[in-house]
What does this fold into?
Amino acid sequence: MDTDTIPVTGVEDLEKHLDELLADPTLPPTTKLFDDVELQLTDANIPPLITRLLPKITEILKQYQQDPSILCSLAIKLLGPLSFTQILSLASEEAIIQALRSPAPSANILAMTVLEKGTRSPGDAAILAMMTNLVSNFLTQWLSAPQVEVGEKGSRVLGDLLDIDCDTRPPDGLSINGMEIATRKPLGQGLVWRRIFQDRDIYELILSLCSDGPLSTQQKSLAQGRLFRVLPRLAALNLHAVTWTDFADLNQRYAGVHGNGGLLHFAALHMIDKEDMLVHLNLIDFFEVLISIQRITPFSTYKMDTLKKLVADATAQDNVLEAAIRSLPERTVPEESEDLSRFIQEVLN
It folds into this structure.
């Protein structure tokens, strides 16, 4: 017998338990019932169970007062075969936002797994871009969550969304040291880019969370680190979008500078307290990754002029950063060291 056609045992018992949890959100979950069903799930036998289990789990999560990890784990497994639009027919935008706002990291990861479905196609990303409140709550939780796993998940989802949505693309993709930066995909519509970089409220939200805004000093440092980690990839996808903004007044408010420098300039030149040694190490890592990736992106005069000015401004009073950049070829793989050294000389000189 084909194992995919064997009925999943324990589903009826789990359904009854879900009804109990719906009736009383203070009840602890019976872990064994969830585990017994989840361990049997395959891509073939999941579809009939989606409409039986997922709506109930969604409703429970809206009001649940216990640790929802076991519920979220099963929900993520059930979401596996579904597309972004199929999920939206089963879970509302409000339910996804509620999961993002939850203090439970498992609920945040579940919500970000839903958004990750938007990275499957440019059309899905475009639909997500129109859901302004969802995008805003996603970015807030990505930067505000204290848990490392939530930050890492958010960084991956954001990078992949902007990758699939990018309306410019290197013809052969980009990778460095085996890490994919930009893939060979159909051109996107650029709607997620516009939502993040041209929506004033969204753009200000990022600046606020990464400067002296609502976060504690420790969480602000985490938020800054997360922004540092995604920007080199975004700069490889669309350098102009991250180096120019129409919101010069926000630069004045959050960075104390005049001009239209974009998010890359904010992060590289104005975001951190350089007296904080740990945060300064993040800045050094950021410049090392940025320069390493920009070396392999297609040449343009705009790129070189932008990098030269950015690095000159950043190193003007930061000898430690300049020394780290100059010594970077000594710490890279031998086959790339010589080309990287030439590129750095061009950028610095």
